[in-house]
Every structure is written in C-alpha cells, then in structure tokens.
Write a sequence for this structure.
C-alpha cells in the first residue's frame, strides 16, 4: 500500500540509511523552524516600519524574490541529489550577456531597430540552450572525473565569467523588450497592486519542479541518490545520470533567472548577479533542504525564498539603519536563522 507523500519524501523512496524519512510526528521541527523565522521577521518589521503590511510590500517581495525563486529551483535539485553548483551566478551572467550581445547584433546599438518575432525568440532561446549545455557539461565532468561537484562547478564559474567578460568587453548591452516586460510589468489587479510577470514565471517554474520531485520516478530517484547513493545504485538507479540531469536543470534555471534579472535591470552588465549564488543557497537551506542530500523539497524552498525576500526588503525599509550596515545585519540575521533551523532540525 502506497504511503502518503510529503514534501520531504516521495512515495516509494527507501529510507536510504535514515537520511530520508517520513514525518512520524504531528510536528516536524525542520519544517517548523522556517515558519517561525518568517513569523518573527514579519512581526519585527511590522513594528519598526510604517505600513509594512501593505500590497506594496507584497509586490516588492514578489518582485525581489522572483529571480531567487527561479534559480533556487535548480539548486534544490542539485542539493537533493547530494551535490552543489557554484556556477549558477556566472551562468546567469553568461546567459544574460550572450542574449544582450545577440540582441544588439541584430537590432543595432541600443536595440532600437525592429527585428522579426522569430529572430527575437531565437535570441532568447539560444543563450538558454547554452546555459543548459554548460550545466550538463558540469554534470558529465563531475561523474566522469569522480571529483566533487564543487570543484568542477568552481572551474565552470570562472569559465562562464571569462566568457562573459570576453563577449561584452565590459560594456553594457540592451535586452529584448519581452524580457524588460517580464522583469518589470504585470497585470494590474488593483489600483495599488501589480502582480509581476516575473513572480508568475517563478511560480510556474517552482510548480513544475514540485511536480517532478513529488510525482515522477525521476523525482524519487533524486531523493534516493541524495539519501544513499550506494543503496540507490543497488536498487537499480543510474545515479550518474541523475547527477548530470540535476546539474543540467540547475544550469537552465540559472539561465532563466539571469534573463529575468537582466530584464528587471533593463540592461546587461558584468556587475549583475554578483550575490546570486550565495543568496540562492541561503534561500534553499533556510527553507530546510539539507546540504547533504535526500531531504527537502520545493515547498520548503518557496518558504526560504519568501523569508529571505522579506528580510532583505524589511532591512531596506528601516530608515535608521545605515546603508553600509545592511549587508552586515543581513548576514547576522541569516546566520542566526540558519543555526536555529539546524538545531531544531536535530530535535526531530
């Protein structure tokens, strides 16, 4: 008889040496900790800032969290299978840079010349394909060399950054209008609230990731690979293929996030996505996904993205905090939240 699924363990996945297990108690501390963190942040910022609980706050949190949400989907796959990808930030940069260069190559300097919709679609899709291929290359080299994935993706991080610098010559480039619309526009639901297209896209990507993890054989294999790779191999799972595909997914979502971020900024430059890797990893881990694989899920990642975005936006709203101190406070709060999450997770 099939056991009910949870966001931690898909049906049919073995315990994998205890790394993956179902909820056996009414409360799961690792799931409760991110909720408690988010609740504390909401109460704190509601007390120290004016009009924090408003539709403007919701819109800004959705807008700021969209890119992180998209990139975090791929990182969730990679972390669940017991790997890490350090190249997501520069893969996002490479995708945006190659798109900007292609766009100005056919639409002129500043992208002011009209081009056909088909060519515009190719200008967007080809950079995305390149980020997917670079992710698959990282996965292939990881399993072929038997080196830790952080070593391979560290090299890929520098490769993507070097390609971006060479391609752009450190110049700024325009982006296609469709990306600018996705990054900044959205349907006006009320006179005071516009639902960003970027948030809708992030929600769609997260929904697809959740369905894959919880309702497909591949998703079960991802959990099994991260929980206990040797046990998964003995059960008939081709674990090298799982690692390659997960890193390919991570490369693709990094590329999508890079294009959305470029559209939000209305341009492409080398200083974009500088903190994307660390922030995305913080979101995934803050939601409760294990760095050691086999435990977590897309719903937890969504909670982590919301928590991080609320924290970032709330700190920017506090007027009596110096701008130079905000990164320090952001790091301190994140460290405290992550330590509490880990401590509560061990109480399960």
């Amino acid at each position: 008889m099939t056991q009910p699924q949870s966001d931690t363990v898909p049906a049919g996945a073995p315990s994998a040496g205890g790394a993956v297990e179902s909820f056996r108690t009414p409360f799961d501390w690792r799931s409760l900790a991110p909720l408690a963190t988010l609740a504390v942040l909401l109460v704190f910022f509601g007390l120290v800032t004016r009009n924090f609980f408003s539709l403007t706050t919701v819109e800004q949190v959705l807008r700021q969290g969209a890119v992180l949400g998209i990139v975090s989907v791929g990182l969730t796959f990679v972390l669940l299978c017991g790997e890490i990808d350090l190249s997501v930030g520069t893969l996002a940069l490479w995708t945006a840079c190659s798109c900007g260069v292609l766009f100005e190559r056919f639409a002129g300097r500043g992208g002011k010349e009209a081009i056909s919709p088909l060519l515009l679609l190719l200008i967007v899709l080809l950079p995305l394909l390149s980020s997917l291929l670079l992710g698959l290359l990282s996965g292939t080299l990881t399993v072929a060399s038997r080196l830790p994935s952080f070593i391979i993706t560290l090299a890929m991080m520098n490769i993507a950054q070097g390609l971006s610098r060479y391609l752009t010559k450190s110049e700024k480039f325009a982006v296609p209008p469709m990306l600018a619309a996705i990054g900044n526009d959205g349907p006006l639901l009320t006179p005071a609230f516009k639902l960003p297209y970027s948030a809708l896209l992030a929600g769609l990507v997260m929904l697809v990731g959740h369905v894959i993890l919880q309702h497909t054989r591949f998703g079960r294999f991802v959990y099994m690979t991260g929980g206990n790779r040797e046990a998964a191999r003995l059960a008939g799972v081709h674990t090298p293929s799982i690692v390659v595909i997960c890193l390919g997914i991570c490369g693709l979502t990094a590329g999508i996030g890079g294009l959305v971020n470029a559209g939000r900024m209305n341009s492409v430059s080398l200083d974009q996505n500088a903190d994307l890797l660390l922030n995305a990893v913080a979101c995934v881990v803050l939601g409760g996904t294990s760095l050691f694989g086999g435990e977590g899920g897309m719903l937890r990642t969504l909670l982590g993205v919301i928590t991080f975005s609320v924290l970032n936006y709330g700190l920017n709203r506090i007027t009596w905090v110096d701008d130079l101190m905000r990164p320090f406070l952001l790091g301190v709060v994140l460290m405290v939240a992550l330590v509490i999450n880990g401590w509560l997770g061990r109480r399960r």
Summary: Confidence is low (pLDDT under 50) at residues 1-27. The radius of gyration is 20 Å. The beta strands are 188-190, 193-194. The chain has 13 helices and two strands.
